[in-house]
Amino acid sequence: MLLSALASCKPEAKKTPRPSEASSRVAHLPYYQDESFTPHWIEPGSQQEKDFHKISGYSLIDQLGDTITPETFDDKIYVADFFFTTCPGICLKMTGNMQKVQEAFIDDPEVLLLSHSVTPSIDSVAVLKTYSEKNGVIDGKWHLVTGNKKEIYDLGRNQYFVENDLGIPKDINDFLHTENFLLIDKNKHIRGIYNGLNRSSVAQLITDIKALKEEL
Protein backbone atom coordinates (compact mmCIF):
# COMPACT_ATOMS: atom_id res chain seq x y z
CA MET A 1 0.00 0.00 0.00
CA LEU A 2 2.80 2.40 0.86
CA LEU A 3 4.59 1.67 -2.43
CA SER A 4 1.50 2.44 -4.48
CA ALA A 5 0.95 5.66 -2.54
CA LEU A 6 4.55 6.73 -3.09
CA ALA A 7 4.26 6.05 -6.79
CA SER A 8 0.95 7.76 -7.46
CA CYS A 9 1.11 10.69 -5.06
CA LYS A 10 -2.08 12.15 -6.57
CA PRO A 11 -4.79 12.82 -3.95
CA GLU A 12 -7.94 14.80 -4.58
CA ALA A 13 -8.01 18.52 -3.79
CA LYS A 14 -10.08 20.39 -1.29
CA LYS A 15 -10.89 24.03 -1.69
CA THR A 16 -11.92 26.71 0.78
CA PRO A 17 -15.42 28.03 0.06
CA ARG A 18 -15.13 31.76 -0.50
CA PRO A 19 -17.27 34.63 -1.85
CA SER A 20 -14.41 35.65 -4.17
CA GLU A 21 -11.26 33.95 -5.40
CA ALA A 22 -9.60 37.30 -6.15
CA SER A 23 -9.66 38.88 -2.73
CA SER A 24 -10.83 38.36 0.84
CA ARG A 25 -14.10 40.28 0.64
CA VAL A 26 -15.46 39.22 3.99
CA ALA A 27 -15.21 40.96 7.33
CA HIS A 28 -13.27 38.02 8.79
CA LEU A 29 -11.96 34.77 7.39
CA PRO A 30 -14.03 31.74 8.47
CA TYR A 31 -12.97 29.16 11.06
CA TYR A 32 -12.83 25.39 10.51
CA GLN A 33 -13.01 22.50 12.99
CA ASP A 34 -13.52 19.19 11.19
CA GLU A 35 -12.87 17.21 8.01
CA SER A 36 -15.98 18.58 6.27
CA PHE A 37 -14.37 22.03 6.25
CA THR A 38 -17.69 23.72 6.82
CA PRO A 39 -16.97 27.43 7.38
CA HIS A 40 -17.95 28.91 10.74
CA TRP A 41 -18.40 32.67 10.80
CA ILE A 42 -17.20 33.67 14.26
CA GLU A 43 -16.30 37.05 15.66
CA PRO A 44 -12.57 37.13 16.49
CA GLY A 45 -11.98 37.63 20.20
CA SER A 46 -15.39 36.26 21.16
CA GLN A 47 -15.93 33.48 23.68
CA GLN A 48 -17.02 31.21 20.83
CA GLU A 49 -13.68 31.83 19.13
CA LYS A 50 -11.77 31.10 22.34
CA ASP A 51 -13.59 27.75 22.69
CA PHE A 52 -13.12 26.76 19.04
CA HIS A 53 -10.83 24.01 17.73
CA LYS A 54 -7.10 24.78 18.00
CA ILE A 55 -3.95 23.00 16.82
CA SER A 56 -2.18 21.79 19.95
CA GLY A 57 -0.14 19.17 21.75
CA TYR A 58 2.82 18.17 19.59
CA SER A 59 6.62 18.12 19.78
CA LEU A 60 8.63 17.63 16.56
CA ILE A 61 12.20 18.27 15.35
CA ASP A 62 13.12 20.58 12.47
CA GLN A 63 15.99 20.61 9.96
CA LEU A 64 18.27 22.33 12.49
CA GLY A 65 17.55 19.74 15.19
CA ASP A 66 15.45 22.27 17.12
CA THR A 67 12.31 21.19 18.96
CA ILE A 68 9.14 22.60 17.40
CA THR A 69 5.97 22.85 19.52
CA PRO A 70 2.80 24.99 19.39
CA GLU A 71 4.72 27.59 21.39
CA THR A 72 7.04 28.05 18.39
CA PHE A 73 4.08 29.72 16.68
CA ASP A 74 2.85 31.87 19.55
CA ASP A 75 1.72 35.22 18.12
CA LYS A 76 2.50 33.92 14.59
CA ILE A 77 0.44 33.19 11.52
CA TYR A 78 1.65 30.05 9.78
CA VAL A 79 1.02 27.84 6.76
CA ALA A 80 1.19 24.06 7.26
CA ASP A 81 1.49 21.19 4.82
CA PHE A 82 2.53 17.52 4.66
CA PHE A 83 5.22 16.16 2.33
CA PHE A 84 8.16 13.76 2.05
CA THR A 85 11.59 14.34 0.55
CA THR A 86 11.55 11.29 -1.76
CA CYS A 87 8.13 12.06 -3.26
CA PRO A 88 8.32 11.52 -7.04
CA GLY A 89 5.17 13.48 -7.79
CA ILE A 90 3.49 16.50 -6.31
CA CYS A 91 5.82 17.44 -3.45
CA LEU A 92 8.32 19.41 -5.52
CA LYS A 93 5.52 21.56 -6.93
CA MET A 94 4.13 22.04 -3.43
CA THR A 95 7.59 23.02 -2.22
CA GLY A 96 7.87 25.50 -5.09
CA ASN A 97 4.56 27.07 -4.13
CA MET A 98 5.58 27.21 -0.47
CA GLN A 99 8.68 29.08 -1.69
CA LYS A 100 6.32 31.67 -3.21
CA VAL A 101 4.61 32.13 0.15
CA GLN A 102 8.01 32.38 1.86
CA GLU A 103 9.10 35.03 -0.65
CA ALA A 104 5.89 37.03 -0.22
CA PHE A 105 6.52 37.33 3.53
CA ILE A 106 10.29 37.03 3.59
CA ASP A 107 10.72 40.15 5.73
CA ASP A 108 7.66 39.54 7.91
CA PRO A 109 8.53 37.79 11.19
CA GLU A 110 4.84 37.24 11.96
CA VAL A 111 4.42 34.71 9.13
CA LEU A 112 6.06 31.25 9.26
CA LEU A 113 5.82 27.97 7.34
CA LEU A 114 5.62 24.41 8.69
CA SER A 115 6.09 21.27 6.54
CA HIS A 116 5.59 17.87 8.19
CA SER A 117 7.33 14.78 6.82
CA VAL A 118 4.97 11.82 6.42
CA THR A 119 7.93 9.42 6.13
CA PRO A 120 9.79 10.39 9.29
CA SER A 121 11.76 7.13 9.39
CA ILE A 122 13.41 8.24 6.13
CA ASP A 123 13.40 12.00 6.63
CA SER A 124 15.93 12.44 9.41
CA VAL A 125 17.16 15.85 10.54
CA ALA A 126 20.14 15.52 8.19
CA VAL A 127 17.93 14.58 5.24
CA LEU A 128 15.61 17.51 5.94
CA LYS A 129 18.57 19.85 6.16
CA THR A 130 19.88 18.71 2.77
CA TYR A 131 16.39 19.09 1.27
CA SER A 132 16.04 22.56 2.75
CA GLU A 133 19.36 23.68 1.28
CA LYS A 134 18.38 22.36 -2.18
CA ASN A 135 15.00 24.08 -2.10
CA GLY A 136 15.67 27.55 -0.75
CA VAL A 137 14.20 26.98 2.69
CA ILE A 138 15.10 29.79 5.11
CA ASP A 139 15.95 28.35 8.52
CA GLY A 140 13.78 29.83 11.24
CA LYS A 141 11.22 31.00 8.68
CA TRP A 142 10.25 27.62 7.29
CA HIS A 143 10.41 24.57 9.55
CA LEU A 144 10.64 21.11 7.97
CA VAL A 145 9.81 18.68 10.74
CA THR A 146 10.19 15.00 11.50
CA GLY A 147 9.36 12.97 14.59
CA ASN A 148 7.05 10.22 15.75
CA LYS A 149 5.00 8.88 12.84
CA LYS A 150 1.85 8.35 14.87
CA GLU A 151 2.04 11.88 16.22
CA ILE A 152 2.45 13.36 12.72
CA TYR A 153 -0.38 11.27 11.26
CA ASP A 154 -2.67 12.15 14.18
CA LEU A 155 -1.88 15.81 13.61
CA GLY A 156 -2.68 15.56 9.92
CA ARG A 157 -5.90 13.62 10.27
CA ASN A 158 -7.33 14.72 13.62
CA GLN A 159 -6.13 18.30 14.01
CA TYR A 160 -5.49 19.69 10.51
CA PHE A 161 -8.08 17.41 8.80
CA VAL A 162 -6.03 17.39 5.60
CA GLU A 163 -7.36 14.19 3.98
CA ASN A 164 -10.39 14.06 1.73
CA ASP A 165 -11.91 10.65 2.44
CA LEU A 166 -14.83 11.71 4.61
CA GLY A 167 -16.16 8.92 6.78
CA ILE A 168 -13.46 6.41 5.79
CA PRO A 169 -11.48 5.25 8.84
CA LYS A 170 -7.70 5.47 8.54
CA ASP A 171 -4.90 4.17 10.73
CA ILE A 172 -1.12 4.40 10.92
CA ASN A 173 -0.76 1.84 8.10
CA ASP A 174 -2.69 4.02 5.63
CA PHE A 175 -0.33 6.44 3.93
CA LEU A 176 -0.98 10.13 4.64
CA HIS A 177 -0.35 12.48 1.76
CA THR A 178 -2.19 15.54 0.53
CA GLU A 179 -1.56 18.65 -1.54
CA ASN A 180 -3.51 20.87 0.86
CA PHE A 181 -2.00 23.93 2.54
CA LEU A 182 -3.58 25.05 5.83
CA LEU A 183 -3.67 28.64 7.08
CA ILE A 184 -3.39 28.89 10.87
CA ASP A 185 -3.93 32.12 12.78
CA LYS A 186 -2.10 33.50 15.82
CA ASN A 187 -4.47 31.65 18.15
CA LYS A 188 -3.85 28.26 16.43
CA HIS A 189 -7.22 28.21 14.63
CA ILE A 190 -7.60 26.85 11.09
CA ARG A 191 -8.69 29.76 8.88
CA GLY A 192 -8.32 28.36 5.37
CA ILE A 193 -7.46 25.35 3.21
CA TYR A 194 -5.86 25.70 -0.22
CA ASN A 195 -4.72 23.53 -3.12
CA GLY A 196 -0.94 23.69 -2.91
CA LEU A 197 -0.62 22.69 -6.58
CA ASN A 198 -2.80 25.50 -7.92
CA ARG A 199 -1.33 28.95 -8.59
CA SER A 200 -4.59 30.83 -8.09
CA SER A 201 -5.25 29.00 -4.83
CA VAL A 202 -1.75 29.85 -3.56
CA ALA A 203 -2.29 33.47 -4.62
CA GLN A 204 -5.53 33.42 -2.62
CA LEU A 205 -3.61 32.06 0.36
CA ILE A 206 -1.17 34.98 0.18
CA THR A 207 -4.10 37.42 -0.03
CA ASP A 208 -5.78 35.76 2.95
CA ILE A 209 -2.61 35.93 5.05
CA LYS A 210 -2.55 39.69 4.46
CA ALA A 211 -6.22 39.91 5.45
CA LEU A 212 -5.55 37.86 8.57
CA LYS A 213 -2.73 40.20 9.56
CA GLU A 214 -5.20 43.09 9.43
CA GLU A 215 -7.80 41.15 11.40
CA LEU A 216 -5.47 40.17 14.25
Automatic annotation (TrEMBL):
It comes from the Bacteria. Residues 1-25 are annotated as: Disordered. Keywords: Copper, Disulfide bond, Metal-binding. The keyword Protein transport does not apply. Cu cation binds at C87, C91, H177. GO terms for molecular function: metal ion binding. The keyword Lipid metabolism does not apply. Disulfide bonds join C87-C91. SUPFAM superfamilies: Thioredoxin-like (SSF52833). Belongs to the SCO1/2 family. This is Protein SCO1/2. It comes from Pseudozobellia thermophila.
